[in-house]
Hints:
Blueprint (H helix, E strand, L loop, with lengths): L1 H5 L24 E8 L3 E8 L4 E5 L9 H17 L9 E4 L14 H13 L11 H14 L5
Parallel strand pairs: 3-4
Antiparallel strand pairs: 1-2, 2-3
Amino acid sequence: FYTKLAESGKGYCYKDVRRWTKKVDVFTKDMIIFPIHCHGNHWTLAVINLIAKRFEYYDSLRGHAGNVLTHLRQWLMDEHEAKKSAPYDTSGFTSVTWPEGTTPQQRNGSDCGVFMTQTADYLARDAQLDFKQEHMAYFRRRMILEILRTQLLP
Length: 154
């Protein structure tokens, strides 16, 4: 989604993703979760937390959000205008890139996808982000089992 929204040769382009939410009212959700594949070699996560009124960015390698949160803010306003025919005020929303030590961080160059999926899962379950690098082997096995069973584990 994010690649199509903002990383094509055109830059930010709402028109390219407008139909992606044709059957979903995102404004009825508590949060909207965006996996982001950065530069073709790293996974990060962005979240629009509609309850807390925050645009959030999670990077297990402590990278900078760049324009991600700005683009998602614009997407949310464009989405409301397109689907509700009214402007949407995001002035009360904050943008947060979590500082080092406040979210799980990887210590290698290969676990970003697992960190990203687990961060999304924990946030969706309203769980504390308390996992670490040493949990990655377990999470990989768990993800395989969930895929094979086509069902998330509790």
